[in-house]
Design brief:
By secondary structure, the protein is α/β, with parallel strands linked by helices. Helices cover 48% and strands 16% of the residues. About 5% of the residues have low confidence.
Length: 325
């Protein structure tokens, strides 16, 4: 009897250890609520994260400023955002942040009110931005500068937050002359009669827009977790852009973002467009990133820094070996 009791106790302990070993790793991930959220929805709903032992709590941010605060403060583990935000955290806030993957080219266009017929009509009005010193605000300042308009003299910047908030600001106040918008907000702006003055990639060249970045120490301490996360994201991205899944992917956008069917369909097509939407397998575009650094240096002052100062793609490279097994 004693031997059987010991055996049962041993079996119970083994089962308990297995149960604990099988518990998924919790990750807090923060991104913007756009059509490019599709791979996150797919990874959550179709089990890509779960199959790699992850429980991801996804949070949508109202602004890049709040997002950066969450990452720096440790309430967020992984951020997906314009990688220029990581550059600002490193250079300005002196945070130990590192970019670990690419993502997309932004799907950005400069949309303006229907009363704006040419760039000079923006004079005396405001350009709506997320934050004034990062990412697409710098693109806007550069584009307007190419047309002879200077920030603070010829127009002002109105920081209101994410794309949804920028579109609302345009709809609420005609003095907000324009904003750089991405999907689906650019299509919604067009449906409201606003005009596109062009894609930012057409006006400024290739651009490494969205990517993933983390605290460097966290990445070192959680390397395997980060690699599995990136692998799951790539797998979900592949599913999202697979033509065989087009109908289901569009239905996800309709459901999650409450989009009309035609807007979801067009968003999906544009996100799959090379050089404008998602990069293949969320690969990092070094040429586009050098443009990010050059633009930041030109607009904010200084000289472009060494790109390697901000990135560590070894986690992504190891993640891709997991994907391709």
């Amino acid at each position: 009897m004693l031997g059987r009791a010991i055996a049962l106790a041993s079996s119970f302990c083994s089962l308990t250890l297995l149960a604990h070993a099988a518990e998924p790793t919790l990750l807090h991930v923060n991104t913007f609520p756009t059509a490019r959220s599709l791979p996150f929805y797919v990874a959550l709903d179709r089990g890509f994260f779960a199959r790699r032992g992850l429980k991801v709590e996804l949070e949508f941010t109202e602004s890049s400023e709040r997002q950066r605060q969450g990452l720096a403060g440790g309430t967020v583990d992984i951020v997906h955002s314009a990688v220029d935000n990581a550059v600002a955290m490193i250079d300005v806030a002196k945070a130990d942040i590192v970019i670990v993957s690419g993502g997309d080219s932004g799907t950005n266009e400069l949309y303006v009110q229907d009363t704006i017929k040419e760039f000079s009509d923006i004079r005396g009005k405001a350009i709506v931005v997320d934050a004034t010193n990062t990412a697409y605000a710098l693109q806007a300042r550069k584009i307007l500068g190419l047309h002879g308009l200077r920030d603070g003299t010829d127009y002002s910047l109105n920081p209101v937050g994410n794309g949804q908030r920028r579109l609302k600001a345009l709809l609420d106040d005609k003095n907000n002359a324009g904003a750089i918008l991405n999907l689906p907000y650019s299509l919604q702006a067009a449906a409201k009669g606003m005009r596109s003055l062009g894609r930012t990639t057409d006006m400024l060249g290739p651009y490494q827009a969205g990517g993933a970045f983390v605290r460097r120490a966290w990445a070192r301490d959680n390397a395997a977790t980060l690699e599995n996360y990136l692998a799951a994201f790539v797998e979900a991205l592949r599913w999202s852009l697979d033509p065989n899944n087009h109908t289901e992917a569009a239905a996800i956008l309709v459901d999650k973002l409450k989009l009309p069917q035609d807007v979801a369909e067009k968003s999906l097509a544009l996100m799959a467009e090379p050089g404008f939407g998602f990069a293949r397998d969320a690969a990092f575009d070094m040429a586009g990133y050098k443009n990010v650094l050059a633009l930041r240096a030109e607009v904010e002052g200084g000289v472009p820094s060494d790109p390697q100062h901000y990135i560590d793609l070894s986690y992504y490279d190891r993640a891709m070996t997991l994907v391709n097994k």
